[in-house]
UniProtKB/TrEMBL annotation:
Protein known as: Uncharacterized protein
Top-level taxon of the source organism: Bacteria
Entries under Gene3D superfamilies matching the protein: 3.40.50.12710, Tetratricopeptide repeat domain
Length: 516
């Protein structure tokens, strides 16, 4: 690239997309370490619960139509760190078991382009029970071109018309990260916006993330009458833009729409789309839109054009559900591309209850405030917000020290609620590539509450999982747990281990005297 410091491309064919692809292929699961690529907002227990409730409502609707023999496939596009898939399956299974009603079986399929990610999901300890039950499978899928799904575990290939039930498509942070066209509307005419890239020095030697951040993008405009032709597949929405918009830059999701059309062919009965993104479904939000800016986070993202997706699918008979209030951080939608979509009452009611009334965007806005206020909160407030967020591990990590400080004034009932919350949190905890010792925090808190049996369980998990040498304080706490539980031999063993690491550990020396 040394002799090509500047170059012009059609936006959807610019090298930014190849760099994005290379970044994910090279990084694999490490891309989400330290939230380098954001994942929490679309992968926390709140949004997983909302999705599970809508999927459960859909299963009820299919059962109400007598369609219970064939399985329903839930296909996640760009499943990222894998946290959302695990939490949706966990919650969905709990809903199914609690309801105890007849439903069609379901299978969750996680997809991505990067094989490293697929290997990471397949080998993740949290996924194994779902795999063994035949409830979870994986597939490499290229949104640009693939028309089939090759399932890795069952070695089954899904081709056109193979699915008798509608397909459920989950697409979080997906449409904003795949190639899009960039058009400009001015004076009632459509222009293509080509991107004029200025490359940094030594471009070929830079890591993809660095190259993306250091390149400069400018735009050139050329008339593009092909968009205005009646034969253009999305002619109706383009005509709408010509009529309603002026001086507006539009990211147009040709690849995203094509991907949905190819996936629709897999089922004989249509699909529903559950999606969350930085995306605008209101036409007025595209008026006078400036040229797009890449949002850098290791890779990059843009704004998803939900308006175009909604408009195109509604022209084909779909019903779209987006919130009537304005979103701040993330827009969550449900599009039912089905025959008689209004008959899917349970699905639509679930959207109303878990997205429209109070949803993931509302929760995230509250969490940003709570994170700043947690040091001033009382225990009941902390516990209430923890419950609201589905016993989220991230919030527990942030608030564990505050909870510890509040324990001297805690009632027995509050401590029992903490104990129960820890177990519920652990049951749905998905460990990320960048490991955090959640078991240690949980164990120490339980130890402070004199809940020795539970504390022992979590502290031993921490010691077993920690690749480094255990800390003498943790071993001493384990010794006390065992002593209080009448496990004197184990207590003596942990005491001696603590003293090997810290021979002058006063509490351990005192405990040792109890065994003499």
């Amino acid at each position: 690239m040394a002799d090509k410091e500047q170059q012009s491309f059609r936006f959807s064919e610019a090298p930014i997309w190849d760099l994005q692809r290379t970044y994910y292929e090279e990084q694999g699961m490490k891309a989400w370490n330290n939230d380098q690529v954001p994942q929490y907002i679309t992968s926390n227990p709140m949004i997983a619960t909302a999705y599970a409730e809508m999927i459960f409502g859909f299963l009820q609707d299919r059962a109400g139509r007598g369609e219970i023999s064939e399985p329903v496939m839930i296909l996640e596009l760009g499943a990222g760190a894998g946290r959302l898939a695990f939490q949706v399956l966990h919650e969905l299974c709990e809903l199914r078991d609690y309801a105890g009603i007849e439903l069609p079986p379901f299978q969750y399929v996680m997809t991505d382009l990067a094989l490293k990610n697929i290997d990471g999901w397949r080998n993740h300890p949290a996924m194994q029970s779902f795999i063994q039950q035949g409830m979870l499978d994986f597939a490499q899928f290229d949104a640009m071109q693939d028309t089939e799904l090759h399932l890795i575990v069952t070695q089954r290939t899904i081709t056109s018309g193979d699915l008798e039930q509608p397909l459920i498509i989950v697409a979080n942070y997906f449409f904003d990260s795949i190639p899009q066209e960039l058009i400009y509307v001015g004076d009632g005419e459509i222009f293509e916006c080509d991107v004029f890239i200025t490359y940094p020095k030594n471009f070929d030697q830079l890591d993809p993330s660095v190259a993306l951040e250091e390149m400069t993008l400018n735009y050139e405009y050329r008339r593009a009458p092909e968009y205005e032709e009646v034969t253009y597949p999305y002619h109706e929405v383009i005509t709408l833009y010509q009529q309603e918009l002026e001086d507006s830059h539009i990211l147009f999701p040709v690849v995203g729409l094509s991907c949905l059309e190819r996936l629709e062919q897999l089922s004989q009965a249509g699909f529903i789309l559950l999606t969350a993104d930085k995306g605008d479904h209101r036409l007025e939000n595209w008026k006078f839109a400036e040229p797009p800016q890449l949002i850098h986070h290791g890779s990059f993202s843009l704004t998803a054009n939900y308006h175009a997706i909604q408009h195109v699918l509604e022209q084909k008979g779909a019903q779209s559900l987006f919130t009537t209030h304005h979103y701040k951080n993330i827009n969550v939608g449900c599009i039912l591309m089905l025959e008689t979509p209004k008959n899917y009452v349970n699905t639509r009611l679930a959207y109303r209850r878990f997205i429209e009334r109070f949803g993931p965007d509302d929760f995230f806005s509250m969490k940003e405030w709570v994170d700043r206020q947690v040091d001033t909160m009382e225990l009941q407030q902390i516990l209430a917000f923890w419950r609201l967020g589905g016993y989220d591990a991230e919030f527990f990590i942030q608030s564990a020290k505050v909870i510890s400080n509040l324990l001297p004034e805690a009632s027995d009932e509050e401590m029992q609620d903490i104990q129960r919350g820890i177990h519920l949190m652990w049951s749905s905890y998905y460990e990320m590539e960048q490991r955090y010792d959640l078991a240690l925090d949980a164990g120490l808190l339980l130890f402070e509450m004199d809940m020795y049996e539970d504390a022992k369980q979590f502290l031993e998990l921490s010691v077993q999982a920690d690749e480094d040498e255990p800390v003498s304080t943790v071993l001493y706490c384990l010794a006390i747990c065992c002593y209080e539980l009448g496990l004197e031999e184990a207590a003596l063993g942990y005491t001696r281990e603590a003293l090997v690491l810290e021979p002058q550990h006063e509490e351990a020396l005192e405990l040792l005297k109890c065994f003499e």
